[in-house]
Amino acid sequence: MLEVRGLALAYDGIAAVRELDLDVAAGERVAVIGANGAGKSTTLKGLAGLMHPRAGSIRLNGEDITRQPAHERVCRGLSLVPEGRGVFARLTVAENLDMGAYLRVDPGIEGDLDRCYSMFPRLHERRRQLAGTLSGGEQQMLAIARALMSRPSLLLLDEPSMGLAPQVTTRIFEAIADISAGGVAILLVEQNARAALELSSRGYVLEGGRVALAGDARDLLASSAVRRAYLGE
Predict the structure, then answer these.
(1) What tens digit of pLDDT does each residue of 149-180 get?
(2) Is residue 50 pLDDT above 90, yes or no?
(3) Domain locations in the chain?
(4) Residue 27 CB: number of other CB atoms within 10 A?
(5) Please, what is the average pLDDT of the chain?
(6) Does the pTM of the predicted model rise above 0.85?
(7) Spatial distance between the Cα atoms of 214 and 216, rounded to a whole number of angstroms
(8) What is the CATH number of domain 1-77+155-233?
(9) CA–CA gap between residue 76 and residue 2 (Å, rounded)
(10) Taking the mean position of all CA atoms in its chain, how far away is CA 198?
(11) Which of these, 64, 57, 59, 3, lies nearest to 28 by C-alpha position?
(12) Is residue 32's pLDDT more than 80?
């Protein structure tokens, strides 16, 4: 599904991601972990088309999307849930979800809306409420549901548990598992390394914008280096 080779990204000429190789198979759950500043969020921005690569290639379902703008990537099945949620604060919950389906013209929009409300009943309760007045957990639910309204085959999630209470974090991770069970591939960037790896089948560890370790998630959880650096053990 997703094949990334030699990806390089920079801010004002300062390298943030270097020679990155990454793969996500159809329906797979893959975690990306690492310290602050390792290049995790930058990687997702590059994949989503929010940054232009200095080098490398990005292929989605066999098609080269390296130079495609962000909206075209959404049309091809790639959707990003950004760090910090990024909801439209002055729009209602329902209007935010409508924006998620903005590029669609198929007849399945209402059915997908019903599924989002079923997954997150709180959003249905708050559907006429301005998004900016929601709690942090509710905004995260909305950001995920909005991305799902584009009907992605690959969902990129950037720090979905950031700033959330443990109980809400558990609900968010349950929702991610449910989304994956529906056939959507997941690429998850997450500071909570244990939760991310436990949810995923494979993982990548980034250090200094490069892949330092990669492999089966269970092997990474058992790695003494990973346990010391990212699991506090």
Answers:
(1) 999 999 999 999 999 999 999 999 999 999 99
(2) yes
(3) 1-77+155-233, 85-151
(4) 16
(5) 96
(6) yes
(7) 7
(8) 3.40.50.300
(9) 12
(10) 16
(11) 3
(12) yes
Between CA 123 and CA 119 the distance in angstroms is 9
Identify the three-state secondary structure at position 143. helix
Strand order in the sheet with 185-189: 78-81, 154-158, 185-189, 29-34, 202-207, 210-216
Pair of tokens at residue 29: 């759950």
Higher pLDDT, 93 or 228: 93
Question: Residue 223: what residue type?
Answer: S
Residue type, 92: T
Cβ contacts of residue 85 below 8 Å, gap of 6+?
Answer: 136, 139, 140, 142, 143
* Residues in the chain, total: 233
Distance CA 126, CA 116 (A): 13
- How far lies 20's CA from each of 71, 98, 103, 124, 210, in Å? 23, 35, 30, 40, 6
Tens of pLDDT, residue by residue over 81-129, are 999 999 999 999 999 999 999 999 999 999 999 999 999 999 999 999 9
Q: Which among 99, 95, 15, 9 has a CA at the least distance from the CA of 58? A: 9
